Amino acid sequence: MIDFFDHASPDANLQGNKGTNLVVMTGLRMPVPPGFIIPIDVFREFQQKGQLPLAEIEAALRSLAEKTGKVFGKDPSASSEQALYVSVRSSAPVSMPGMMDTVLNLKDRAEIMAAIERIFSSWNNARAIEYRRLNNISPELGTAAVVQAMVFGNRNERSGTGVVFSRNPTTGEPGLFGEYLGQAQGEDIVSGQRTPSPVKLLQQEMPVIYAELEAKAQALERHFREMQDIEFTVEDGRLFILQTRSGKRSGQAAIRIAVDLAKEGMISREEAILRVRPDDLKAVLYKRIDHPEKYTPAARGLNAAPGAAFGRVVFHPLDAVAYAKKNERVILVRIETSPDDIQGINAADGILTSRGGLTSHAAIVTRAMGKPCVCGCEALKIDLKKELFEVNGRVIKKGEVITVDGTTGAVYLQALPLVEAEVTREFSEVLSWADEFREMGVWANADTPEMVAQALKFGAEGVGLCRTERQFNTPERLILIREFIMAEDARARTEAIKNLEKLQKEDFAAIFAAMKGKPVIVRLLDLPLHEFLPREEETTDPKVRQKIRDLEEVNPMLGHRGVRVGISYPEIYCMQIDSIAEARELTGANVGIMIPQVITVQELVTVKQYCRSLNIRFGVMIETVRACMRAGKLAQEADFFSFGTNDLTQATFSFSREDAEKKFLTTYLEKGILQDNPFEVVDVKGVGRLMQTAIEWGRKEKPDLNVGVCGEHAGEPRSIRFFHDIGVTYLSVSAFKIPVARLVAAQVEMEQRGK
Ligand code: PEP
Ligand code: MG
Predict the structure, then answer these.
(1) Of 285, 347, 593, 698, whose CA is between 20 and 30 Å from 252?
(2) Measured between alpha carbons, how far is 362 from 375 in angstroms, rounded to an integer?
(3) Residues identified as active-site
(4) Which of 561, 622, 646 should be mutated for ligand 1, with most atoms under 8 A from CB?
(5) Which ligand 1 atom is nearest residue 623's CA?
(6) Residues 621-634: pLDDT tens digits?
(7) Alpha-carbon gap, residue 275 to 612, rounded angstroms
(8) For residues 324 and 330, is the Cβ–Cβ distance under 8 A?
(9) Is 711's C-beta closer than 6 angstroms to any atom of ligand 1?
(10) 3-class DSSP state for residue 440?
(11) Which is nearest to 68 in space by CA: 82, 54, 89, 80?
């Protein structure tokens, strides 16, 4: 049962992780201090009977003493160098760092036996139980105990101890990286009592040992095909390796190491792709706070758009523009934002709002721009007139500096050091490898030439959703669309819309040209018209006030929006279709038109009649429950489908995202009534079933029907896996989510093939 490192064959289920690695390292002829493993079945017996196999352990201790040529037990004649000291450590099949006990410097039988009992009993200490619960580790697994001869890094001046990584865990650069402390034991470093130096010091002090360590680290890396985190000790000029495991690393390092290992032939390209996690890509894509754990946030809001920024606080969009002109960093703080604020949002480095959820105007606009945003930070009491806000008793006035972290939702009342986003060569390389494996297309949600340029940089194969309402979001254009809305009759509307037509044509032409022949799907106007009007309290014009009241709706999300507006006011959709067609003529682009909020094929037929026999592809957004149920009929008329999973989720659950996230979703998640926020991870059992049915019925009519997803779920890894399984053809996501979509679409393909 009890096996010495040099006799056992590796078996993690019996020996646990640490034990198996010691067996493997001994097999590789690494200089591992000798020892033996008391396996997990002994632990089980101990749990049942409360007894250890004493005779067997004693015999093992005697052989260990023989192997080392030292004396174990109280032998008054043995000098300290002749005495055998042993350590006893836990070794579970799943690593549980620091949760169980370790006992060092044991020199007689009784101490040992007690230490083994202590290690076995520590499997059930409160810390370990809680760790297992949090990490879903079964209490049945149990632990082995490793008994090992100790070596002493504090023996003399030719001794020391340290920890090295086989590659830099922050950057991924090849070569030994780590720390070393002369005349010390590991505990001296762990306890923080002494500060180690870079491992280069060892190279100066003991170059031969350093070279040996370097060679061993490389050999271990080659064996495990993974970057290693290695503990070592030098005792009287002799190197010992105490432990090795795969090392924790930053996102940037994870990407570089995966790519380098593939290039060095240690792993395949497929393995490299599978080893990169979506979070690794995200960590590289956004600016972030350097060591955020050092700082305490003053407040937290919703993490609406990732990235971190600091800057001077302003409360009005034009101030943001003015500060930006002076090259000052600026954070625009608003109660909530509206289309009128767009210039200020554009000029600001980050946005902070006290109201609004993850689909508020601020959240949607900043996410698309790739600009950090914290929204719905309710602890903020904003006084726009006095240009200040108060939070937890502190008052911050215009011009003072704060930091917002849109990745976590944290707000800090000072400037914090930031780490720049850096898209590395390895980042692009691993994604281009991923492209060779994936079948789903990855397109972009992009509304402006700037967004298109960004999307192309990240590898978009097309634009799957160009939301046209955003193009009205500048002050000059708001004036024009308002003229249209205020027009008394159809003739006046047609007149008013001419001014917009010219601008729309320019918008589309610029986007089409930027895409250089790659396909673009333009979605016709979706917003309710009242969204383009000021708030009633913001205007004194009685006609405008009357119009605002006329257009008021009880439930705007379920009201006069999408294709319904296009049917009530054909001038708008006709204008948009004409501008698209003319821009296509100018640029020779590959264009499709998509209609939002469709519930019946008659809507599609009606809109198609607007366009004088244009040869253009028409698709429908599938974002109402009825559209899913009528998918077969819709497929007869539509050239493609694109699931708007944001609206489809709201429609399926019958709750609006804003209200759900603000009012009850947290409680639902805490109580386990829902497992995930359905606006983040697609709800497979409800929304997913509707999607699956719609695809099935659609393809019955049109077997080669292209089906996209352009809601936010298209950039979420678990949802991407589901979309793949139900036969989605392409994903369309905002520019910064493109890398994750490319990676996960390839990973899911490889996982399926491997099954
Ligand atoms: C959707 O509903 O998922 C969608 C993409 O459209 P929007 O978010 O513009 O409503
Ligand atoms: Mg929608």
Answers:
(1) 347
(2) 7
(3) 361, 710
(4) 646
(5) 2
(6) 999 999 999 999 99
(7) 52
(8) yes
(9) yes
(10) coil
(11) 82
464 CB less than 6 Å from ligand 1? no
- Of 21, 17, 40, 42, give the one whose Cα is nearest residue 32: 21
Our mutation pick for probing the ligand 1 site, out of 521, 710, 730, counting the most ligand atoms within 8 A of Cβ, is 710
The pLDDT value recorded for residue 359 is 65
Radius of gyration of the chain measured on its C-alpha atoms: 32
Contacts of 289 (CB under 8 A, 6+ apart): 295, 308, 403, 405, 416, 417, 418, 419
Beta carbons of 574 and 610 less than 8 angstroms apart:
yes
Q: Which tokens go with 608?
A: 């198609």
Question: Which residues touch 190 (CB under 8 Å, ≥6 apart)?
Answer: none
Which 3 state secondary structure label does DSSP give 329? coil
pLDDT in tens, 505-563: 999 999 999 999 999 999 999 988 888 888 888 889 999 899 889 888 988 888 999 99
Q: Residue 203 is inside which H or E element, if any?
A: helix 200-205
Pairing state of beta strands 730-734 and 441-445? parallel
Q: Does any ligand 1 atom lie closer than 6 A to the CB of residue 647? A: yes
- For the record, the structure tokens of 567 come out as 């049917």
Q: How many helices (H) and strands (E) does the chain have?
A: 30, 31
526 lines ligand 1 (CB under 6 A): yes
pTM of the predicted model, to two decimals? 0.85
Cα separation, 101 vs 98, whole angstroms: 7
The token duo for 551 is: 């257009």
**Which among 349, 332, 455 has a CA at the least distance from the CA of 398?**
332
Closest to 309 (Cα-Cα) out of 329, 337, 290: 329
Ligand nearest to the CA of 642: 1
Q: Across-strand partners of 146? A: 37, 89
Q: In what order do the strands lie in the sheet with 102-106?
A: 3-4, 35-38, 144-149, 86-91, 102-106
Q: Cα of 711 to ligand 1 centre, how many Å? A: 5
Q: Which ligand is nearest to the CA of 711?
A: 1
Q: Which residues of the chain have pLDDT under 70?
A: 74-80, 190-192, 359, 612-613, 755
What is the enclosing helix (H) or strand (E) of 253? helix 251-263
Q: Whose CA is nearest to atom 10 of ligand 1?
A: 647
pLDDT at 431: 98
* Burial environment of residue 330 by CB neighbours within 10 A (0 to 12, 13 to 18, 19 or more): buried
Tokens (6 digits) for 433: 């490898």
- Cα of 448 from ligand 2 centre, angstroms: 18
Query: CA quadruple 474, 480, 486, 491: dihedral positive or negative?
Result: negative
In angstroms, rounded to a whole number, what is the distance separating the alpha carbons of residues 228 and 218? 9
Q: How far is the CA of 714 from the centre of ligand 1 (A)?
A: 11
Q: Is the CB of 623 under 6 A from ligand 1?
A: yes
Task: Write the residue with the smallest CA distance to atom 1 of ligand 1.
Answer: 644
Whether 467 lines ligand 1, by a CB cut-off of 6 Å, is: yes
Residue nearest to atom 4 of ligand 1 (CA): 644
Query: Under a CB-based contact definition with an 8 Å cutoff, are residues 313 and 397 in contact?
Result: yes
Cα distance between residue 441 and residue 742, in whole Å: 8
The amino acid at residue 612 is R
- Atom nearest to 643 CA in ligand 1: 3
Token output for 85: 């000291």
What residues have CB less than 8 Å from 690, skipping those under 6 apart? 625, 628, 648, 652
Q: For residues 230 and 199, give the distance between their C-alpha atoms in angstroms, rounded to a whole number.
A: 12
Collect residues with CB below 5 Å from ion ligand 2: 623, 644, 647
pLDDT for the residue 278: 94
pLDDT value of position 78:
60
Judge residue 327's burial from the number of C-beta atoms within 10 Å of its C-beta, 0-12 exposed, 13-18 middle, 19 or more buried.
Answer: exposed
Q: Note the pLDDT of residue 79.
A: 65
Ligand 1 neighbour 710 (Cβ under 6 A): yes
The DSSP-derived string for 45-60 is HHHHHS---HHHHHHH
Any idea which ligand is nearest the CA of 691? 1
